[in-house]
Amino acid sequence: VQLVESGGGLVQPGGSLRLSCAASGFTFSNAVMRWYRQVPGKEREWVATISSAGRSTYYADSVKGRFTISRDNAKNTVYLQMNGPKPEDTAVYYCRADYVGMVYWGKGTLVTVSS
After folding, report:
1. Residue 92 near residue 38, CB atoms below 8 Å
2. What is the average per-residue pLDDT within 40-50?
3. Mean pLDDT computed over 30-49
């Protein structure tokens, strides 16, 4: 199983950024996918969840209305569209797969929101 995040970088407050997480080694369309984030010295924080077929999505209050999680099961990829990011969104972003009772994590991608 492999989860590889990409798309992180420096973005200005109010801009936009799209993170991707490419999955392999399991049946992606059967997995619930999630995004988390972590700031050094703090606990990892849940950001968003998408159901296996993509019909249901859930968001932390801190990102609701600004971030959108989506997936393309044909490409084995989950996305996080970040619109209007704020400096407090600066963190390492991780994707997570929940698959047949197991949990898998990627290695993360750093997002820095700064002018």
Report:
1. yes
2. 97
3. 97
